[in-house]
Each structure stands twice: as C-alpha cells, then as structure tokens.
Amino acid sequence: MTRPRFRLCALVWLALLVTPIVQAAPLSIAQLMASLAKHPQGAATFTEKKFISILEQPVESSGELLFVAPARLEKRTLKPKPEIMVLDGDTLTLERGQRKRVLQLKDYPEVAGMIESIRATLAGDRQALERVYHLALDGGNERWTLVLTPLDPKVGAVIARIRMEGVKDVVRSVEILQADGDRSLMTIEKRASPQ
Amino acid sequence: MIHPRRRGIAAIVLWLIFLLACVGIISRTHFTTDLSAFLPRAPTPEQQQLMDQLSDGLASRLILVGIEGADAPTRARLSMQIAQRLRADRTFVSVNNGEPVNTERDRAFLFDNRYLLSPAVTPERFGVDGLHAALSDSIDLLASSAGLLVKSLLPHDPTGEMVQLLEQLDSGTQPKLVEGAWASRDGTRALMLMQTRAAGSDTDAQQLAMAAIRQAFDQALDQAPGATPSAKLMMTGPGVFSVTSRDTIKRQVTRLSIISLVLIATLLLLVYRSFSALALGLLPVISGVLAGIAAVSLGFGAVHGITLGFGTALIGEAVDYSIYLFVQSEQNSADHQNRIKRFWPTIRLGVLTSIAGFASLLLSGFPGLAQLGLYAIAGLIAAATVTRFVLPALLPANFRIHDVSAIGLTLSRVAQRAAALRWPAAIVLLAACAIVVENRASLWNDTIASLSPVSQADVELDTRLRADMGAPDVRYLVVVSGANQESVLRAAERVSTLLQAQVEKGELAGFESPSRYLPSVATQRARQASLPPRPLLETRLTQAVLGLPVRAQLFTPFLADTAAARSQPLLQAGDLQQTSMAMAVDALLIQQRGQWRALLPLTAPEGGSIDADPVRAALSAIPDVLLVDMKAESDSLYSGYLHEAIVLSLGGLVAIVVLLFVVFRSPMRVLRIIAPLAAAVMTVTAGLSLFGQQMIILHLVGLLLVVAVGSNYALFFDRPDPRTPILPRTLASMLFASLTTVAGFGLLAFSDVSILQALGVTVAPGVILALIYSAIFARQSDACQSNV
To answer: Cα-flanking dihedrals φ and ψ of residue A7, to 5°?
Structure first.
C-alpha cells in the first residue's frame, strides 16, 4: 500500500508549501470582511483631528469608541466637550450638554454615509458597504488600506472618499476627505476587548 | 247625548293638529350624538376651556392612522401614497407620516428670521464676551460629530441661533422611521398623524375626513403591485370617536326601537287578541314619542341621540295608559266616557307623580339629563292626555278585547296570598339595606369615562396608537387670555420663561407656545435692538475672535445678515404660511368671542406625571393665566353632575311625597304608597352593587323611573277603604303594563352604549319589584282576610 501513503505525504507537503503562498498573496475584500466580522464587539480609544478650511488650526477631539455587532456604534467624546453619539440601527442619538437629539439616519444621507462606513467596516458587512460605496482594497493582511468612494451622488456631494487603514482584523485609522476639501483623521487604538 | 260626541270630535281634531305640529318641529330638528349633551350649560372658565378644547381644540382635530398587516416596505409605501393623495385634499390641514415635506421651507423660514425668533438674542450675546463665548461653542460643535451639519452655517451664524431654533423645535418625540415612513416602536405598524380643517365636534365633517382616508387607502391598495389584502387600516382620535359613537347610537336606537315595538305589540296582541285594539293602544305611545322629541327640540334646539334611545324605552311605559283603559273598563258598558272615569283619577295622580319626579331633572346643569326630564314629562303628559280624551272617542261602539278575567282572578288569588311574603320580603329588604350601606363608598362611578359611548376596544386602539405616536394627550394646558394678539403673545412669553425654569428643574419635559413661532411685536423689536450696528459689531467681533482658531474676516456674511435683520419687517402670522409652524400657531393662538387666547400645552417628564401645584404657584404672578388640568376638570365636571343629580332626585322624591300628601292628606296613605317604591329602589341598588356594577347618572334616572312607573301600581293597590277589593281586571292590567315596561327597558340592558345599558338594568327589575312589593305590602281587604 505504498501509493496511498505517498499520496498523503504529497498532500501534506503540498499543504505546507501552499499555505505561505496564500498568506503572502494580496488580501481579498471577502477575506478582510470575514476576519473583521469575527469580532462581535470591541472597545477602543480614538483621537480625531479635523482640518476645516474656515478654521485656522485643526480642531482635535478624543474619546472612546464602542462597537457591538451588528448595528450599535457608540462614540463617546471626552474632550474638548463631552458628547455621546450612539448609532443603533437607523437611529442616531446625539447627547451634548443637556441636549439630546434623536435623528433618523435616513433624514441625513450625508451623515448616514459617513457613519455607516465605519459601522459596516467594523461589522465586516460587505453588503452594507457596497450599497453606498465602491470598495478598493490594497495591501496584505499585515497592513491594508481600504478606500471607499461614494456611489450615491448625494453622498458624493459631501464625502469625496473615505480611507481606512488597518492591521489584520483591526482598523487603525479612518480618514474622511470631504468634497469641499476639509478632512478629518481619526486614529483608533484598540483597548482590551470587554469580553 | 250629542255633547260628549262633539267633545270627542273636537279632541280628535286638536290631537291631529298637535301631531302635525310635532312632526313639523321634528322635521326641522337637529339630532346630535356628540359630547354636547355632557357639557355644562353654565361653565366656569376652566370648564369653558375644556369645552372649547373638546369641540374645537388642536387635539380634537387629530386623526391617528395606523396601517397593519403586509410587510414593512408595503406599509411604508401605502403610507406615502395615502399622504400624497391627502395632502392635496383641503379636508386636511396637515398630513404627517415622517416624510420631510415642509423641511426645506421650515428651515428657510427659521434661517431667514433667526434673529427675530431666537430667545438667545440679547444685547449681551452681541457684546465682546458674549460673542466670544458663542463662537467658541460653535467651534466646539464644529469639532463634534454634528459638525458636518453646522459647518456651512458658521460664516452666517457664528452665534448658533439656527442650532438654538432647531433644538427648540426638535423635541425628540417623533416616531421612528421605517422605510422612510413613521412606524410604531415594534415596527409592526405604519403610523400617520392628520389634522383636519374642521373641528372635532363637526361630526359630519369628521365622517367625510374618515371616508377620504379610507378611500385614499383603498386606492393605494389598488395601485399596489401584487395582492396586499392583509394590509389593514385603523383610525382613531376624538373625531373618529364621535363618528363611531354616532353610528353605534344610531344603530342601537334603531334596532332597540324596532325590537321593543315588536315585543310590545306581540304582548298586546296576545292579551287583546284584536288588531284594532293594538293599533289604538299604540296611538298614545306614538303621540308621546312625537311630543317628547318636539318638546326637547323646542327646549334645547337639538335632540341628542341618547334621548331618543331613552324614548324607545319610554314606549313601554306610555303604552300602560291604554292598557289600563282597555283592560280595566267595563266590558259591557257602551259609554266609553264613563268607563274611563272609574280609573282616570288614579292614572292622573300617577302621571302627576311621574312629572313631579322628572321635573327636578329639568333643573340639572347637565343638558343630557335635562333633555331626558323634558322628554319624559312631555311624552307622559301627551300619552296620558291622548288616552283620556282622544282614545275613548276613537273606540268603535262594539269595541272589545279578549276577556282577561281568568288571568285577573288568578292574579287576585295570588295577590291575596302575597301578604304571606311580608316577612321574607322584609328580610330581603333588610339585606338590601345592609348591602347598600356596606358598599356605600363604591356605589357610584364618578369618572366621566363611565358615560362614554366609546367601546373598550376602541379606547385600547387609541391608547396604543397614541403611545406609538407620542401624540400629545393635552392633559395640562396653560391658557393665557387677553384683549388682543399682542397682549396674549407677551403674556405667553412671560409664561414661557416661567415654564422654562420648571423644565430645567425637571418638573416638566417641555411645553409648546405660539410665541415660539410668532414672538410678540415687543419681543421682536427688542431682539432687533439687541443687534449692534454693523461697524460696532465688526469691532466687537475682531476682539471676540482673539484666542480662537478663526479669523474675523470669515464672518462677513454674518455682518451682512445682522445688518439686514436690524431693519427687516417684523414677523406676522401670515409669514408662517406653508410651514409646519403655521399649524402650531393656528392651534395655539385663538381668537374667539372677541377675545384672544394663547394655549401652552405641557408635556410630562418621561415616565412621570406633572405635579400641577408648583406650576400653578409659579404662574400665579401673571394675571389672566389659567392652568387647566383637562382630566381633573372633566372628572370634576361629571362628579358635579352626579352630585347634582343625586340632590335633584331627592328633590323629586320630596315633590312626589308632597304631592301625595296634598292629594290624600293622610301620612299613613302616603307612607303606604311610598314604602313599596322605596323598597324597590333599595333592592335594585343593592342588586347592582352585588353584581359589581357601579352606578352612573343614568342608573339614578332609572331609579327615578322606577318610582314614576311604580307609583301607578302603588296607587292602584292603595284604597281608602280596605273593604273594597282590588278588581281582578285592575290586577291584570297592572301585570300587562309592567310586562310592557320590562320589555321596553329590558332591551336596553343588552345595549353596548353604557348609558342606555344603565337605564335598562335599573328599570326592568325595578318595575317588577315595585309591583311585587306593592302587592305584598298592600292593605288586605277584609273579605280576603276572612278567607285566610
């Protein structure tokens, strides 16, 4: 029975040979989304810099991000003014000072596009992303760059493109370039997962 | 004997003229089914507010629509199609389903008038420090997640007045959007909120509005691709309630009248075995009904549906008089005039006691009750008079009915033994007294909801849709009155300041005010005056931006806008047209009877209720301001009615006693007549209490009817001379009379309309009990006693 044994060895060899090749190959969107989707929740801190043409200097804010798959994203800004933004399903709640505003995402397609990009990426929800954006992925598993370009001209009138960078299954930064040239850069640092 | 005959003809002619007149009046009568019957005739200022709100207020014009079944996209599409159709319909002032219809216009209005509208516009805000503070706030906001929304505004509105206004408008209580249309929290229903142009009290207009909604729904269904038979339309709201209760009352009154007529006619046919006797016997009834409606129409200008429902029951009593005439009169006597004379005095006294009882209701401040009183009095007088003067003239010479002496004899044997039941009856009565005393605290239901003809299912649907919608229930309302628009708007602004303090303390979640959208002229001028002239503002701005990451040059549009605002024409009500704010101002700023009023509805904190006292105390400093608690007001209105009705009924009882005393001049006889009636009333009350039915005003009216009808029996059983036995015929006539009454009122007991049901369950058993007690406690004739 030498032939089957040889076959088995060959398979093992082949497997050993093939696996590193696959890993070195360019990351596919499907693979990235699948690995992102593995995290049902996560907590991180963020620092956001906004470069706004009408302001002389960039404004900086920082705080915490909390994501619970599939639909809840919390952005708790601590500086310079405390603010809580919660996106849950289609409802966006903004709490600033004593004011609490509840918005329906559908009423604000521009804002919706922006927030949805982050939420859907964190959730690894390719379908949701592709409803709004054209996706272009560059790089490999160790370091990747995902560029989103709005499909809807209405969203495009506000957002030129969104560029996300990440390492493996972690998003490291989100840069939003607005149509009028203003941009914001949010850098994310992963904290220990609450689970 | 020409004389009596002539008199008979004259009576017939007069009667026919009377009937014609009644029919003439009725043909022009307006029939209502709305709340008018329940509203006071001489209201206090608070009650006036309540009445205006109920008949005409913002809440009265709202129709809440729900669409159930099918799937969410279908429901949303139906909602949008209905809305599109109805927005073109002048029946509706507004049709909301969450679609951003007026958004553009609203924003433009707010933006163009932000310096006149924003309460933040004060001289301090446009000083150097104020500007600096406002600017740094705006820059912080720019850095926040909402920054995108305000970025384009900054050069025009660095002080953030627009954000102020938007936040004020957005109370955050809107339903959520599913597929672009409002939906319930659980997502199973699409929701719409419509405001009709017509007042909620205009039932015809409300019915048309409902029909328009249904038609739009049906058309939307037809257009929908594929079958959507599972989609279901639901409507609720005060107007919808008045339409459905009108339908209910109409249907019930019609059905009850027909059934009770058929029942009574069948009963009479069984007794008389003669169609002509049946036809003749119904003449007093018809006359009574017509006279009753005509009298109410003349006295009140309109007849309420409930009064008609009551009328059907009264058929059963009015027919009694002809029963007494036919059954009691001598069968072989040819002279009809004579045959009537035997029992007429008793009947007359019976009618008089009934009138004495019902006359007290005429004094009621509750128009519904006064209508019943007038109807009963007019109806009974007409029925009795026709029986006395017209019916004998109409009887053919050979008129006779089936001989009922066999039944009479049986009854008289029973009646003679009735005395044996005195002790058991006394025990029952004692028990009844004990029950009534024991449950005296819970005998009465004093919430106005107990009168509502709206079914429990409809109330539940309303509560559900209202909760989904977060629709205003408008329980608490601050009302500001004044001689002109300016003065009420200024007062409303002062009230708003005080209310805002309550909001910050957490006593209130919020409030609405017309001055928010249409500030008083004085306030608008003051805000204009707060804006510095351009050169001055420019200088201040240059100083204010120090230390902030902006250059003053950025705000050139701001300088231009404020300069324009300083001289812009002041806002007037007309400027609001075509915005969603117009609806609010229309509803909240009212000119009526030469007086202006501003309404400021309050919203309770989430999950809590409003404590009226601190709010009332805070407002006490301002004259002509009233905090109205609509629920407390309507409940106190009703318990006031109830209290009054109790007093009036007791007054009626006293009137009956006095009348009997004047006629008989013997306390013992009066007592003998009153005793069985009081016993019947007590037993019925105890029975209701035992069955857990709390009494409302209509139970009380029912008890009054028991006394009125029962007094006839008691009077027949009462004889000055105990040696004259009661004729078997008389007994038979009383049995038939009580049976017809029970048939008439008993039917009401099966009605869905609570007030008709209350009458039914009281009168039907009460009348039977009055007859039984009268028989039991009647003086025994000597002949009978020797028999025993």
So the answer is: -60, -45
Cβ–Cβ below 8 Å for B172 and A100: yes
B554 to A54: CB separation less than 8 angstroms, yes or no = yes
Residue by residue, DSSP assigns B321-335 as HHHHHHHHS-TT-S-
pLDDT digits (tens, 9 = 90+) for B571-585: 988 888 878 788 778
- pLDDT tens per residue, chain A (195 residues)? 444 454 545 445 444 444 444 444 567 888 888 888 887 778 889 998 988 888 888 888 899 988 887 788 888 988 888 888 888 887 788 787 766 777 767 667 667 777 788 888 888 888 888 888 898 888 888 888 999 998 888 788 888 899 999 888 888 899 989 888 888 899 988 765 444
Cβ atoms B684, B694 nearer than 8 A:
no
Instruction: From chain B, pick out residues whose CB is under 8 angstroms from the CB of A81.
Output: 140, 144
Which of A94, A104, A178 is facing B177, going by the closest CB pair?
A104
Residue B71 contacts A, CB cutoff 8 Å = no
Residue B782 contacts by C-beta under 8 Å, 6 or more apart in sequence? B722, B723
Query: What would the DSSP string read from start to end of B18-41?
Result: HHHHHHHHHHTPEEE-SGGGGS-S
Per-residue pLDDT tens digits for B501-518 = 888 887 887 888 899 899
Segment (H or E) for B468: helix B456-469
* Measured distance between the N- and C-terminal CA atoms of chain A, rounded to whole angstroms: 51
Strands, E, within B579-710: which ranges? 589-592, 595-603, 625-629
A154–chain B Cβ distance below 8 A for any pair: no
A-chain residues near B139 (CB < 8 A): 55, 59
The beta-carbon neighbor of A94 closest among B98, B140, B146 is B146
What CA–CA distance (Å, rounded) separates B40 from B59? 20
> Contacts of residue B151 in chain A, CB cutoff 8 Å?
52, 54, 182
Each residue's pLDDT tens digit, B732-777:
888 888 888 888 888 888 887 887 888 889 999 999 999 999 888 8
The total of other beta-carbon atoms located within 10 Å of residue A170's CB is 16
Q: B549 and A59 in contact by Cβ < 8 A? A: yes
Helix, strand, coil fractions of chain A, as percent rounded to 5: 30, 45, 25
Mark yes or no for CB contact A60/B144 under 8 Å: no
Both tokens of residue B546?
């120090």
Q: Does A88 touch chain B (CB under 8 A)?
A: no
